[in-house]
Amino acid sequence: MAKKAKKETPLMKQYNAIKVKYPDALLLFRVGDFYETFGQDAVKASKILDIILTKRGAGSETEIELAGFPHHSLNTYLPKLVKAGERVAICDQLEDPKQTKTIVKRGVTELVTPGVALNDDILHSKTNNFLAAVFFGVKAVGVSFLDVSTGEFFLSQGNEEYVDKLLQNFRPSEVLVSKPNRQKFAAAFGHDFHTFYIDDWVLQDDYANETLLKHFNIKSLKGFGIDDLYEGIVAAGAVLHYLGETQHHKLQHITSIQRLTKGEHVWMDRFTIKNLELYQSTNQNAVTLIDVIDKTISPMGGRLLKRWLALPLVNLSSINQRHDVVEYVIKDTVTLQKFQHQLKQIGDIERLISKVATAKITPREVVQLKNALEAIVPIKAIALQTKNKALQLIGEQLDDCEVLRERIKATLNEDAPVNILKGHTISSDFSAELKDLRELSASGKDYLNQMLERESERTGITSLKIASNNVFGYYIEVRHTHKDKVPEDWIRKQTLVSAERYITEELKEYETKILGAEERILAIEQQLFAELVKWIGEYIKPVQKNSALIAQLDCLTGFAQLAIQNNYTRPFLTEGHELDIKNGRHPVIEKQLPPGEPYIANDLYLDREQEQIIMITGPNMSGKSAILRQTALIVLLAQMGSFVPAEVATIGLTDKIFTRVGASDNISMGESTFMVEMNETALILNNISERSLVLLDEIGRGTSTYDGISIAWAISEYLHEHPSRAKTLFATHYHELNEMSETFDRIKNFNVSVKELKDNVLFLRKLVEGGSEHSFGIHVAKMAGMPQQVIHRANKILKQLEKSHSSEELTDKVKTLNNEMQLSFFNLDDPLLEQIKEEIVNIDIDTLTPVEALMKLNEIKRMLLKKKRA
């Protein structure tokens, strides 16, 4: 028997008709003073918000789950739903319930998603909230990023590795992908992103092009310099389309779109970004680099600093320009303090002007916008007075927006409320009508009292009463005992059991003035405020430009403050290839040390001619990883425009930083630690350039010792022989690798020194020339609190192993690679010829790259030269 269909009330019929249009969203349905959720939405909302789940029409045919909250609590509950990853459709009443006798019209006024939010309670002031779109094209992958709360819009395209890097850098809150590419996206970029799958037709080039041209009201994208980014344009079009789908149509603050060009910034892959802990750490409560270096004051500065960290520069003059500003304000601390004082007054003008465009700005926020623009006036003057060209240019470009400031000042009261409905928003001096109405409203009671007194005296009726109702407005009420004293000019309106009600010409006249004065005041205030907000919309571009300039100034003065507080020095950037750091320090670790404990600074030198690869040996916990990371962080800080934690630093421009640090298991995806390690290392070896900095930590430890040493040796050899001669730091506990320096002239041995005491070992954390002999692993176990019994047993086993299977044997086996070819070169069964033959036979010509061919040739040449010398 077919299941009987549920009966629908008119309200639920309306709800279901709206819900069917937003199947993927949680629908907040306004009913009177509440936002209600129904059915599965109610079940979900009750769990996320911890509110009571009840039933509507319990026990009847129309029974359905229900959960709701008061409409004025929307800003409390909405962020919780969005942060839980929900897309929330806000359905409001589109008419006054008093004005209709049928069911109130309702419709979705906004769709809030993790990547599309304008609510201050959802957004973080110093973090962008990017919505991204990824498009898999035939030749490249397109990507775009848009923060609807600030109007910043970027696009780019490239291979999957490049797009992956951008996704890691921009860390979007939501990524749009076409439905057919669901699996492809997960395979390429993992499962860490909150994704939303859109119809494939949205990602079409003609539709995307048309969407962008229409939005910017232009004929060609050439003006933005993006017309050649075919795949990027498709992604950008998808982002704008999605904003329309989520009921965001007021987007005049999105005034431009910027291309991100591959090669203009230091390349860092996802592993490097993660390993260096730039923004976040896998350890809870860990301090990251951004935590240490962020001395910005404004929200715009904080957001820009993250972008500078994500995209360090490779252009020498641009880097030096930033360093010049930082150096100037460090020397002129009075100017620095003046800038900082004014920056504190500014607030988030970037998001305020976006609220103007979306018509979501409050009266109080408009006053804040005016105050922020007033704080920019002295900044402009200070910048123009400096003797630094970059600061003077900022001063010249800042717009004092005088007309805008004066108009806001003239229109709004300085203490304007958050909510326009609270009244007292518009200045009385701005509108004569408003002034009269306010005076009338204020004096209304006095006027009625005077009239009552006058009429009582005239008629002799002491019990007269003036009141009003919705039927015929103001009236004079006379008890029946006095009705014979009522003057002829009064007009009777209503007879009650014990009294009569009258009106007079004077009362009617007054009523037309006073009745609805409050409503009229409110209507005028709303109208004038709406006109003001629309007029401010003409100033979106200049305010956005001011915001961008203030953000730059904030970052640069923040760098100066950082350098003063933490004793950083100016690095010398060159077009050369050397990396020379004197007394370098790790910017994060030095801030974590107990009070009074000095950070052990270290020197480091790398170049492509003499000292290309440094093998760093030393026990665990001795500080090898810290030296690797601090080298990368010093280079990063220098190229983003900051001073660095070192006594002196000379840095040849670096275009790529690769790190393979620590074991980052990916077991959830079915890959072992070793497999992940090899994948990451392969990515490095296939992408190195002559300006790359490569940092390898404990490569090969995820497998057996023999395998590990073999792989580590082969990787080091590859890096040494590769034409790029990339500068490399290789931290390892395989002391056997120290032997490489005998064969490879650009490999140097260093170790992190330790001091052996009778029963202990003291880590000196100083990098010194020469290889290390021991690993001190048992000492580390002892320091970690391992039971004494385990420590004794480990020592015994170690001694037995050292006797029976010395590491010298292992080293001899590796060195045999270079020594086994000492027989006569003319002997036909010479093992060297056999080996060369085997090498050539096993080459797969079809898959061999030009670089690998050169490497192979070089390897054979080395074998022959060694034979010749022998």
List the helices and strands and how they pair.
Layout: H1 10-19, E1 26-31, E2 34-38, H2 39-49, E3 54-56, E4 64-70, H3 74-83, E5 88-93, E6 106-112, E7 131-136, E8 141-147, E9 152-158, H4 160-170, E10 174-178, H5 182-189, E11 195-198, H6 205-216, H7 230-245, E12 258-259, E13 267-268, H8 270-275, H9 289-293, H10 299-310, H11 316-331, H12 333-343, H13 349-357, H14 363-385, H15 389-397, H16 402-411, H17 432-459, E14 465-469, E15 473-479, E16 491-495, E17 499-503, H18 505-514, H19 517-536, H20 540-566, E18 572-574, E19 579-584, H21 589-592, E20 602-606, E21 613-617, H22 624-640, E22 648-652, E23 656-660, H23 673-685, E24 692-697, H24 705-721, E25 727-731, H25 740-743, E26 747-756, E27 761-769, H26 777-783, H27 788-804, H28 807-819, H29 831-841, H30 850-869
Provide an overview of this structure.
- The chain has 870 residues and is α/β, with parallel strands linked by helices.
- Among the domains are: 10-112, MutS, DNA mismatch repair protein, domain I, CATH 3.40.1170.10; 131-262, Nucleotidyltransferase, domain 5; 429-519, MutS, DNA mismatch repair protein, Chain A, domain 3; 572-789, Rossmann fold; 831-869.
- Helix 12 (333-343) crosses helix 20 and helix 16 runs antiparallel to helix 19.
- It is elongated, with a radius of gyration of 37 Å.
- It starts with 9 loop residues before the first helix and ends with a helix.
